[in-house]
Design brief:
CATH architecture: Orthogonal Bundle
Strand content: under 5%
Oligomer: single chain
CATH class: Mainly Alpha
Order of helices and strands: HHHHHH
Helix content: 55-70%
Number of domains: 1
Radius of gyration: 18 Å
Largest sheet: none
Shape: globular
Number of helices: 6
CATH topology: Helix Hairpins
Distance between the termini: 32 Å
Length: about 120
């Protein structure tokens, strides 16, 4: 997760540019989807073997930048909605532990309602 220090730097970056007015929850959610789409473009039309063996440093840099953009928007959204990313991820993991018990799903890609 993002440290408190980094989160403060992100918030300061946004505040100094007076961008809070553009960062409504709706617009942050839209931005998340757009950045996720930009991340996907780096993998589009490539096989798994192409992805694992032929990613250049330039590709890795582009991918890293898109992941960073996603993390930034998630950080802003969590802050603005007063949601702790660590708490909600922990809660979701606990829920998924029950939904996907190891003895039933190990090695399977089936959804919880298919086993």
């Amino acid at each position: 997760m993002i440290s408190s220090e980094l989160k403060e730097k992100l918030l300061d970056f946004r505040k100094r540019r007076d961008w809070e007015k553009f960062h409504t929850p709706k617009d942050l959610a839209i931005s998340l989807v757009l950045e996720a789409s930009e991340l996907l473009e780096n993998f589009q039309w490539k096989s798994d073997s192409e992805i694992s063996t032929s990613l250049t440093e330039m590709d890795r840099e582009k991918i890293s930048e898109e992941i960073a953009d996603i993390a930034i928007y998630i950080s802003y959204l969590c802050h603005d909605l007063n949601v702790s990313l660590e708490e909600i991820v922990t809660a979701k993991l606990a829920k998924n532990e029950k939904k996907y018990p190891v003895d039933k799903v190990r090695g399977s890609a089936k959804k919880y309602n298919e086993y």
